[in-house]
Design brief:
about 50% helix, alpha+beta, OB fold (Dihydrolipoamide Acetyltransferase, E2P), 5-stranded mixed barrel, DNA polymerase, domain 1
Length: about 190
């Protein structure tokens, strides 16, 4: 299964891009945000991939960020939402805006996205509200290694607020292992 591609952006057409990875062109269907990202990438584009396998075809879906891919994967769990509809929903706003609509139970705004009716919007809210990571604002303040440390600590069961408080004291240039150890000690009270 392909989960990540890095290569030269060749072209975009419709909802897809082609990335040349060492002489092999991969077609990945993407949201408008990912297409814009790939088109502005100067030398190479990095795309997180979801590989969708059906009996008669294999389709790659590409995402500019892990957050966008995670939201896509969550949308696939909604009854009646397949990969094409999920991709269409991602084109209707940034992942942060879409999460906010879902958490605020804003079915009206969700249903304004093309191909998403009122019933689908309500089903999305019913299925996903409260299950999406609300730490978008926190994570955006922490880049690279700090982002990895943040998610690792949240996945261990620490509260977002507590992890955010500890992360303020971590250097931006720290290595993952040292930062994780230091944050874990602070959260454990040692």
């Amino acid at each position: 299964m392909i989960s990540f591609l890095r290569g030269k952006f060749l072209e975009a057409y419709g909802d897809a891009i082609i990335i040349d990875v060492n002489g092999v062109g991969y077609e990945a269907h993407c949201s408008v945000h990912t297409i814009e990202y790939a088109m502005t990438a100067k030398k190479e584009a990095q795309v997180w991939i979801y590989t969708h396998v059906r009996e008669d075809q294999i389709t790659l879906f590409g995402f500019a960020s892990k957050n966008e891919k995670a939201l896509f994967m969550a949308l696939l769990k909604v009854n009646g939402v397949g990969p094409k509809v999920a991709l269409n929903i991602l084109s209707g706003g940034t992942p942060e805006n879409l999460v906010q609509m879902i958490e605020n139970e804003d079915a009206r705004s969700l249903s304004k996205i093309p191909k998403v009716g009122k019933k689908t919007a309500e089903q999305i809210i019913l299925t996903l509200r409260g299950k999406l990571l609300k730490a978008e604002e926190v994570v955006s303040a922490h880049m690279g290694v700090k982002k990895q440390i943040f998610f690792a600590l949240v996945n261990l069961g620490f509260k977002d607020v507590d992890v955010e408080r500890v992360m303020k004291d971590i250097s931006d240039t720290i290595e993952f292992e040292n930062g994780f150890r230091q944050s874990l000690s602070a959260l454990s009270g040692q």
